[in-house]
Structure formats: C-alpha cells, structure tokens
Write a structure and sequence with these properties.
This protein has helices spanning 21-41, 47-78, 104-135, 139-159, 167-180, 183-210, 214-244, 266-277, 296-300, 331-341, 360-374; strands at residues 5-11, 14-19, 83-89, 92-97, 281-286, 289-295, 324-325, 345-350, 353-359. It is α/β, with parallel strands linked by helices and 376 residues long.
Length: 376
C-alpha cells in the first residue's frame, strides 16, 4: 500500500510515520481550508489568519487520525496482535498489522474502537468549543475547533461504512466470522461489499464531475478507487497468509541453480548468463563455496569498454540478509524481505554453501495452484 515512508516519532512503543502521499493531502487540506471553508464560514479575518487556521486545521486532522489509529493499536496489542506502527497516507491512516486477528471478538473490539474514539474526541472538542464562549477565546481558535468537531464526527461515520477494510467492514467481517466460523468466507463477503461501495463512490464521483463539481467529483472518484482496491487487496493478503502460513522456503527453492565462477570476465557474464538465462542476479561460487552474488546494477557501474578487462570477482558483492536466507525460513518472512529490499530472487544457503535459489515467481505459482485446488 505504501511507498516511501518518513518516520516521525514513537508513541508508547508504536512508530508513527507518514507516507510521502500525506504531504500531498496536507497541502490540499491546508489550501482548501484557508481559501474555501474558513473564509466562507468565519468571515472578517485577514488572509494570513485564514492560512494559519488552515495549517492548524491540517495539524488537527493529523492528530485526529493518529488518535483514531492509536486506539485501534492499543486494543490490537491487548489481544496479542503485533502492530509494526501507524502510517498516514493520502486517504487517511492505518495501523500496520503483521497478522489477522485471532478471534471474531478481537476483530470486533479492535474495529469498533476506531469510530468510538473519533466520536469521543469530537465530543471533547465540542466541550472545549462551549467553554471557549465563556473564556473569550479568539474567534480563529474557536473556528478551528468547530471544524475539528465536524471532522471527527465525519471520520467516525465514514469509517462505519460496511466496506472492508474500513472499520465498518471489519465489524461486518467479525459478525460473519462469528456466525459461520469461517474467516476466509467472512473476508470474501466483506471485501465483496467493500468493492461494491467503492464502485458506488466512483459512480457518484463521475456524476458529480459531469454536473460541474470538479474537485468534489475527483475526491469521490479517488476515494472509491481506493476503497475498491483496498478491499480486493485485503482479501488477496488473507489468501496469501492462509495458504503460505507455516511453509518453509526450502519447499519452494530450486536446487542446483545456475552459478558463476568468479574467474569469468564481465563480458562473458553478460553474454553467456544475463542474456541467456534472463536473470538479473546470479550467485558466484568457487569450488562449492559461495563467494557472493552479482547483479545487473553492479555491471552497469562498470564502463562498457571495461567489461572484457575485468572479472566477475571485481564486481561481486558479499552475501547479506538482503540476498540470502536459510532453507528453514518462514515463507512469509521471505515475502516481507522481498518487499522491503525490492529483491525478487534470494539465495538459499547453509553454512556458506549454496543449496538453492528461490524466486517470487515460483512462490506465486505455488500460491495460485494451492488456492485453485483448495477453493471452497
């Protein structure tokens, strides 16, 4: 779901980060508040005041989403679910879970806490607005607080939509899971409804755009696209976890892979290996001992007219956790490493000896076959 993340701070053991897309949202929110909402509803202030109100409103949105996701994370931790952190991105925020909830009860309580927390925060800010009248707070401060009251109630209501993986969709999944006792079936139904809700927003966005509401239509369309994509992706992730849970990477590796001796020239490496086998990375092995690996990026750093003058040993990089794994490694951990490093091909080693190669393509083929054979 995420691209480049920027770590901001840690809160009670949870890492809080922002995806670079959040910067886009922050700018759009600040601009729309400073140039649209606040001047329309709170008249008589200077342009610079509206911009300060816009910045404060965007920061309030940031804090509200952090609070919402933090409450999710607290309940998840209570039920033993590992949470890597909280990440904000262009469509809101998400508590990053490594695994599915262990019971319908855990799912329900974790999901319902989000909207409840947003509603409670909205009520607390509303109380502050009432107090501001008696304490003569500046008008711009009261204006921002009123916006945050409205924002948190909207946040609570939106998340109650029965569109998995929104909170409402997770509540629905918990109920279906409890009724039938089948997490996969419950996820399939909830994600299907989520896709339908996403399609509804897309249609509303197109209609709004046609009727002249460009900005509103664009946001409806993008939100619909996101909900639809997230629903489908969440179901696929569940299938992935269920199908590959407990599998060791040794079951997926190809033994006796193509290897390269360190003595061959870089030119021969390119012509006889890269162009012949179409892999971007090869293990370098001498007398049965793994020396490291060589990939296309290392070769590209060497000028073309130097290929014949250098051997593979000159461009070999040592083995590390970014390119090697042991045969007993859990396959989900390997997929996580592939996602983190961008490598789709890992060397499988035992005591510095190469025993095989594993690729993302091979694992996906296995997954597709297993789902096809075990489809209920």
């Amino acid at each position: 779901m995420f691209g480049k993340k920027i770590h901001l701070f840690s809160l009670f053991g949870f890492k809080v980060s922002v995806d670079v897309t959040w910067i886009i949202l922050a700018v759009l929110i600040t601009w729309s508040l400073a140039k649209g909402l606040f001047p329309n509803y709170f008249e008589g202030y200077s342009n610079i005041t509206y911009w300060w109100m816009g910045i404060a409103g965007a920061l309030g949105l940031f804090a509200s989403i952090i609070f919402h996701e933090f409450c999710h994370s607290i309940v998840a931790r209570r039920f033993g679910l590992p949470i890597k952190g909280i990440t904000l991105f262009i469509f809101g925020g998400v508590a990053e879970m490594n695994e599915e909830p262990k019971s319908p009860k855990a799912e329900f309580l974790m999901a319902v806490m989000g909207p409840v927390s947003s509603a409670i925060l909205g009520l607390l800010i509303a109380a502050a607005v009432l107090a501001s009248g008696k304490m003569s707070w500046p008008g711009p401060v009261t204006g921002v607080l009123k916006y945050l009251v409205w924002l948190n109630f909207i946040l609570a209501g939106f998340n109650l939509l029965p569109a998995f993986p929104l909170d409402g969709g997770r509540i629905l999944r918990a109920v279906l899971w409890k009724v039938k006792g089948n997490l996969r079936w419950a996820t399939h139904v909830a994600s299907g409804l989520g896709s339908a809700v996403g399609l509804f927003f897309i249609i509303i966005g197109i209609m709004t755009f046609i009727l002249g509401g460009f900005i509103g239509g664009m946001w409806y369309f993008l939100i619909g696209m996101f909900i639809r994509w997230a629903s489908q992706m969440s179901y696929r992730q569940l299938l992935l976890r269920k199908s590959l849970a407990g599998e060791q990477i040794g079951h997926f590796m190809k033994p006796e892979p193509v290897t390269i001796p360190s003595s061959v020239s870089v030119e021969q490496l390119v012509n006889d290996y890269f162009y012949k086998f179409h892999y971007k990375m090869f293990p370098v092995v001498d007398n049965g001992e793994l020396k490291g690996c060589v990939d296309t990026n290392q070769v590209k750093e060497l000028p073309r007219d130097q290929w014949a003058k250098h051997t593979v040993s000159d461009v070999t990089k040592p083995c590390s956790q970014t390119n090697t794994i042991s045969p007993d490694t859990d396959v989900m951990k390997v997929l996580s490493q592939m996602n983190k490093t961008g490598n789709s091909r890992f060397m499988v080693t035992e005591q510095n000896h190469l025993v095989g190669i594993v690729t993302l393509k091979d694992m996906l083929k296995f997954l597709s076959l297993k789902i096809d054979l075990e489809e209920e």
